[in-house]
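Entry for glutamic acid complex. Fields follow.
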Amino acid sequence: MTRTRIAPSPTGQDVHVGSIAAALMNFAWAKKNNGQFIIRIEDTDRTRLVKGGEEKMLDTFDRIGLKADESPKVGGPYAPYRQSERLEIYKKHAEELVVKGKAYYCICAPDRLTKMREVQQAKKQIPKYDRQCFLNQEEIVKKIMDNKLPYVIRLLIPEGKIEFEDVVRGKITIDNSNLDDQVLLKSDGFPTYHLGVVVDDHLMKITHIIRGEEWLPSTPKHIILYQAFEWDLPVFAHISLLRNPDKSKLSKRKNPVWTSWYLDQGIFSEALLNYLALMGWSHPEGKEIFSLDEYIKVFDIKDIQKTAPVFDPVKLEWMNGVYLRKYPVSSIKYLVLEFYKKQKINLPEEIVEKTIPLIKERIKKLSDYLPLCEFFFKKPNIYEVDLSNKKELLKQIKDELEKISDWKANNIGESMQGLVKNLGIKAGEFFMIIRISMSGKKISPPLNESMEILGKEECLKRL
Ligand code: GLU
């Protein structure tokens, strides 16, 4: 049985798009193999918790359509799926390792550890715990018992080396002398990430761990833990982090990184998933546009690429436009109305329906609609060009348009073509003036059709 997971820590406002890219691979791999995809909340770093972060994250996974088979929300056979509710389990396992001689108690005070690290760094050595407590373990245990001292449990890194096969990165070898005796259980009773992740992945029967490359340096420690517990290893795949188009690490400073930001802009979840599927993987037929079902069919972890994928919001918008144009006008109308309703803007349905055909080819996301079409609903309050010295011409245009009895785009067009010919002025400027007086903007949806929708009375008023 294939079981995969995503294990976010609620230390940000929302789910990072890079985490969705990783979750997508985990989701697809589980679904492809008729397995389960699990969401586990890793909230053991209490100092970095963001209030409301977990709720928001779980909500985003739902919105994007990566539904978990097991999670804190839906429960499951290995509940609880929130690490802060599993403290007893971690404690029991950490103590089990002490009994096995694979871990030990440590009572060193933070200032001793800091000093030790400073000395090591000054000597250009790898900062590592000097095992003072391990060497005096019996005495330390007695001290803890007698005086109820706070303690941590540390992993005893064995001698030798760790070798493992990463699906994306190939064979990895690490000499254990580079590894520190990692704290497994903190003095507040919480596990560190390393203990929590290994215990839970084992108990939750996770078979494949697909996660960001930032966790690769932790993996040898995890493997030592699996070996200490005598547990089978899962398959590891460490995927490359997303980059900005300038190849720098994707970060809040350059581009928005929160998934719901994109969804809130009117990027469709299908389009975002499709785009993220291409981060570190390509369709075997080179296709750019494909559904989640198709992705699940053709995705294989052995095809994950090592090169750093570029997350380009411009490309994402383009792709979203492709998705948008697949919908009939009636659906786009509905999507636009709903999108703005959520922002407490109620647009008149009839006008939205009429305007969609004019702008369907131009908009890439739902939030592009109003900036282009606002003038249909209200008179512009900003004019990109000052028309105050064009009063005479505006009057002539108005008089000419007044004569039209059947207010249709082609009649409006004919009438204006006739006028511009008679006046003998440049057509470009002439139509720009009309466009500005209608929409306030130099660029707008097709003019005649827009004027038909605006209606005769309104057009004359705006002129
Ligand atoms: N809690 C870690 C995170 O925030 C999970 C890392 C892992 O997948 O092992 O991403």
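NOTE: The chain is about 45% helix and 10% strand.
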